[in-house]
Amino acid sequence: MGGQGGVSTLALVLVLGWALGGGANCPERELQRREEEANVVLTGTVEEIMNVDPVHHTYSCKVRVWRYLKGKDIVTHEILLDGGNKVVIGGFGDPLICDNQVSTGDTRIFFVNPAPQYMWPAHRNELMLNSSLMRITLRNLEEVEHCVEGAECPRLLSYGAQLSWQADSSEKMDYPNPNLG
Ligand SMILES: *[C@@H]1O[C@H](CO)[C@@H](O)[C@H](O)[C@H]1NC(C)=O
């Protein structure tokens, strides 16, 4: 097989894998459950992709944090970087998570937990992605905030419903970084 054929086959496999892993067929858990399982929920912008695992295609990202929606006190100073406004989040590409891919410059809502000890030392002082990335829209922020505040989560979030909200660009907010994807 020629080198070029190999490259395009690889590209096809990667695209298919992405489509299957991140597509609408992946059932997302309810927002309430996602909020309960994540001890930290924050908004932030991906600044750097790091520690790409060549076998599992997982990676970590350095993320500039804009706001904690939940669990600020759980983020200890060992986890904080660069004067306290950045963290490293691991677990991107985790096949157990539907929407698990980011690029540099993406701003998202992240549902994370401090890395458990069995993941040390590789993920020591990292936060681990716990469920799908969420786009920043006014409605998504409000829904997450309602859940965090302990109110009834206003609706049972399915991934399909989430996608249709995302399509409503009128709900996009002015955020410091315009790359909301
Ligand atoms: C999310 O966190 C919960 C603990 O709150 C854990 O049981 C679960 O395995 C985590 N999910 C992933 C995909 O890491």
TrEMBL record:
GO biological process, one term: receptor clustering
Keyword Aminoacyl-tRNA synthetase carried by entry: no
A GO CC term attached to the entry: plasma membrane
UniProt xrefs under Pfam families: NtA
Cystine pairs: C26-C98
GO molecular function: laminin binding
Keywords: Disulfide bond, Signal
NtA domain ranges (all copies): 26-156
Residues making up the signal peptide according to the UniProt record: 1-24
Domain of life, per lineage: Eukaryota
InterPro entries documented for this protein: NtA_dom (IPR004850), TIMP-like_OB-fold (IPR008993)
Descriptive protein name: NtA domain-containing protein
Gene source species: Callipepla squamata (Scaled quail)
